[in-house]
């Protein structure tokens, strides 16, 4: 992919150039409680339409996927916790001891190491994806302390190696502060690579924290090949008007940054919880519609489904998404595969 090809075409349309480069995010303005630029603060309101990708296609962009596939869906899982149902068991047991006057028991329980079941349902997730010809990327937190640490990456080395050796991907889920801290980002990358025993090339930041253009600069300096953080937490859709991978342009430096951005179009948490508050049927209608848009543009979309949502209705919704993508003959590679194998000429 020619790194400046998209940029050269977009210079002829100032409004699309600004959307693509995220010009509005360089300005001081509204941010949410995590310091993120939210969709509700954006001047660009066509969140369901990849306006920049559509324009590039109209100008003759050529997109090639392996084996004749028409579009791509990059599936991924942020592993924030390994076993949420018993993560706070130690604290709950100590509280029970305290309430019945067992103070020695309280101290004993708090002093014991936290026990979690290693890596929640990794093999079940992979087996499910295998049924539909899909591979995915698992992004792991690799910190040695602090509020983002809920597991020790060194205790799940075998799981990491099994994922990687089976054709799926292990990437870094950078801690909240890493998006603006090069030293921290490099340290976390090194911790994960030490546990995995090989280089890590893919990245997504915890809580989708991201600062344009700083985070892209740091990712390049830290040696990553691609990022897939750039999506809105509060709304599914096309941030930056893109449903194709691209190399971001640094408006301050006047240069293209050597890091491929894979657009994150859907995050499970955006659909439910404190954001869009859709029911299962409404969520499916939105997911299906976005997939159809991406297929029509011969595009690529990232889908993030947390390992903690692999149960009940949300698990069935994820499988329905896999089935639909398979029926539409989508290429479903890891982020690393996509970065290495797809071709775009503008």
Provide an overview of this structure.
With 346 residues, this protein is α/β, with parallel strands linked by helices. The chain folds into 2 domains: 5-82 and 118-345, Glycoside hydrolase/deacetylase (TIM Barrel); 86-116, no CATH class. Helix content is 37%, strand content 13%. The chain has helices spanning 5-10, 14-21, 51-58, 89-99, 103-111, 122-131, 157-165, 182-196, 214-222, 268-271, 280-296, 312-327, 335-341; strands spanning 62-64, 72-79, 136-140, 169-174, 202-205, 226-227, 249-250, 255-256, 260-261, 264-267, 300-304, 343-345. Strand 3, helix 7 and strand 4 (169-174) form a beta-alpha-beta unit. Helix 4 (89-99) packs antiparallel against helix 5 (103-111). The longest helix has 17 residues, at 280-296. The chain starts with a helix and ends with a strand. Residues 85-93 and 115-120 have low confidence and may be disordered.
Number of domains: 2
Which range does the strand content fall in?
Answer: 5-15%
Overall body shape: globular
Kindly identify the CATH topology of the largest domain: TIM Barrel
Q: Unreliable runs, pLDDT <50, ≥5 residues?
A: 85-93, 115-120
How much helicity do the residues have?
A: 25-40%
Strand order of the largest sheet: 9-6-5-4-3-2-11-10
Radius of gyration: 21 Å
Q: Tell me about the largest β-sheet.
A: 8 strands, parallel
CATH secondary-structure class of the largest domain: Alpha Beta
- Please give the number of β-strands: 12
**Terminal residue distance:** 8 Å
